[in-house]
Amino acid sequence: MAMKTVAGLILAAGRASRMGSDKRLARIGGHSMLELAMAAAMGAGLDPVVVVVSGPEPLAPMPRGISVVINPEPSRGMASSLVTGVEALPDSVAGVAVLLADMPRVEARHLLLLLAQAGPDRICVPVHQGRRGNPVVLGRTFFPDLLALTGDRGAKGILARHSQAVREVEMPDESVLMDVDTPEELRAAGGEP
Fold first, then answer.
1. CB neighbour list of residue 163: distance below 8 Å, 6 or more residues apart
2. What is d(CA 182, CA 34) in angstroms, rounded to the nearest whole number?
3. Of 134, 149, 148, 144, which Cα lies nearest the Cα of 97?
4. Nearest CA-CA partner of 39 in 70, 62, 13
5. Do the beta carbons of residue 149 and residue 76 sit within 8 Å?
6. Domains, the chain
7. pLDDT tens sequence across 87-144
8. Above pLDDT 90, what percent of the chain?
């Protein structure tokens, strides 16, 4: 049972110590990783799409339908970005797809596979040959859990606590699980710092 109104929440860190630069703006195939994440979210019909920026760094104007919120306390860990983003969502959404801007191989087709299995009481995670990854789609039932997160653990604790609600969705290949945190990983993904 697919949900009709699913928001997109893109976590877009700024400067990364291992990357040595603003990794959300690192380019792959002529597009920044952030642009690739936004294209995937919009292509899958997520609405609204909220980009959470860690720190005060401004971004260029966003495409129509995409808003930016700034995490005022990025030093409190990844959970503070999740909380900031969920707080920015309208009450009308039935769920949220949480994407990481440093996962450039996530495309609309991958999100659509997850959304097809989503429901208000489900958590959908991509899996390839037993390996779980991101993005994760969470029904509205889990918003209180998201808002209570602290530290750097992200949603992993929610998945563990609500394991009966987790639906693993097989992905066509493992590239969707690739994240980019270092210049070497960026080059392996066909990008340039």
1. none
2. 16
3. 134
4. 62
5. no
6. 6-192 (3.90.550.10)
7. 999 999 999 999 988 888 899 999 999 999 999 999 999 999 888 888 999 999 999 9
8. 46
